[in-house]
Amino acid sequence: MPQRNCSAPLVLLLLSACATMDPSLGEWEEPSPRFANLQRAAQYPWTDSGNCVVREASNEWPILAERCFRVLERDRVRFRDVTGKCAVASAPAAAAVPAAVALCVFASPAIVTGAVVVIGAVVVAAAIQEGIDAYKRDAARERAKPKAQTRAASAQEPVAKREPKPEGLGRDWLPPVTSDSSERPECRPVPVPHAGGNDPHNDCADLLPQNDFQGWDVLVNGKQFDALVLATRTLWDIKTDNFEKHNQHSQQFFARVKLSELQREKRLAEACGYRFFVGVRSVAHKAAIKRLDPNLDVVVMDWC
C-alpha cells in the first residue's frame, strides 16, 4: 500500500483529512437534485414541519417553491427583487411586496444573495432533517457496495465451469417483460387520496366529465394525476390558478415554472399508453402554455 504523504509543516491543518482518507472512494460525487433541494429548503421556516418540501423535493426547485410556498412561514421572511426580473410595474415603490413577486423571487432556480432574508434563527424542519439524514445514510451504503460486490464476484466460480441451468427454471428466472404497457404494474391506475390543502382544485378535478375516479387522485407510473377518463385513456392535470389576475411578466414566469413538470407528466402518461391533457381556467393560460410547448394538449375548463 502506498504511504500517505503527511509532512510535518502541514500536520496541524491536514492531520484529520489524511488520517481518514479512503483511496477507494475516488472523486466526490455531485449531490442529487433532491438532496440539493432539501439543503436549500433547510434554510427557511415552514409551518408544516417540512412535509411539503420532502414530498416535492425530487422536482426542480421552482416547482417545489411554487407548490410549497403556501406553507412557508412568510411572516419571518423578507423578499427583495435584487435582479429586477420579478418587478410589478404597477406596484408603488413603498408598497409591500406582492405575493406574486415574493413567489417569483423565492422560486428563482439560482440562489441570489440578499433576495430572500429570514428573520431570526432557523431550526431545520423535522421532516427535512430526516430526509437529509436518510440521503446521507443511503449515500454511505452506495459507496460501500463496490467493495462488497467485488469480493462476491471474485468468490464465484468462472462462468465457463458452471453447469447450464435449464431455461425458465430456478430462482434467477423471471418472466419476460410484456410489451403491452397497460399490463405493467406501474401502469395500472391506483386511486389515492387527493393531495390536501386545496379543496377548490380537488372539486374541479372531481367535476371533470366522465372522470372515473371522482373523489380521488390516480397514481400511474409513479405520478399522482388529478383525474382519469378510462373511456379515452386520458390522464389529466388540473390547473385552477387565477392566471389572468397577474401581469404579463408574471404570467410568463408561472407558465415557464410549471412547464417542465407538465412535460414530465406527459412523458409518464404516454409511456403507459395514456393520453395527457391539461385543464386550465382561462384562454390566456392556455395560450401561454401552448406558446411554450405546442405539443401539450390544453383545454379551457367550462365545468368549474
From TrEMBL:
<keyword id="KW-0732">Signal</keyword>
<keyword id="KW-0472">Membrane</keyword>
<feature type="signal peptide">
    <location>
        <begin position="1"/>
        <end position="21"/>
    </location>
</feature>
<dbReference type="InterPro" id="IPR046277">
    <property type="entry name" value="DUF6310"/>
</dbReference>
<feature type="transmembrane region" description="Helical">
    <location>
        <begin position="100"/>
        <end position="128"/>
    </location>
</feature>
<feature type="domain" description="DUF6310">
    <location>
        <begin position="181"/>
        <end position="304"/>
    </location>
</feature>
<protein>
    <submittedName>
        <fullName>DUF6310 domain-containing protein</fullName>
    </submittedName>
</protein>
<feature type="region of interest" description="Disordered">
    <location>
        <begin position="141"/>
        <end position="203"/>
    </location>
</feature>
<dbReference type="Pfam" id="PF19829">
    <property type="entry name" value="DUF6310"/>
</dbReference>
<keyword id="KW-1133">Transmembrane helix</keyword>
<keyword id="KW-0812">Transmembrane</keyword>
<feature type="compositionally biased region" description="Basic and acidic residues">
    <location>
        <begin position="159"/>
        <end position="170"/>
    </location>
</feature>
